[in-house]
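Can anyone check this?
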Amino acid sequence: MKTIIKVVLLAVSLVFDQACAGEIVVIGNSNVPKMDVATIQKVYTGKFISVSGINVTPVGVKPGTVARNRFLHEFLNQDEEKYTAYWTVRRFIGKGAPPTELASAADVISYVQSTPGAVGYVDEAELKPGMNVIARRSSIGKSGPQSVWDSADEVIGYMQSTPGAVGYFSIAELTEVNMIALR
């Protein structure tokens, strides 16, 4: 019985953490231009080292944090295991090193603001006025990087019709019908 209660409490806390967490945003030093998700993916996988003529230096938070897990899932369509394996291979074949991992969102913000070309990701709740937000995942949608869906049904329809698509929506919109569609 105690095990069941622990499992239920863990599940509720995970849902609560996700519901309370803000949107993940990618920030850049003041000299870094806006980017679409494809460019963010290339920067964080070492395939681009400059954007619009500006050398970029990606940083992130340490593994195991909610912000990192959400960034990997929402922007790179990967989990920690795949991302670490990817960089292990790249490093082994001499194709670069993974982005620097900093201890906290405050460290990411400080580094990005003080380092020309730096980019990082944080929970939007951590944003300070005047920060250069270069990408938001909510701006990704059904017709490319600048649209959003109007309902959970549209998100699910897109996810079902597009291989590799990732979408998210409010728990309040989740119904038995769309739970079945997600299976």
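Reply from J.R.: I decoded it. Residues 149-183 form one domain.
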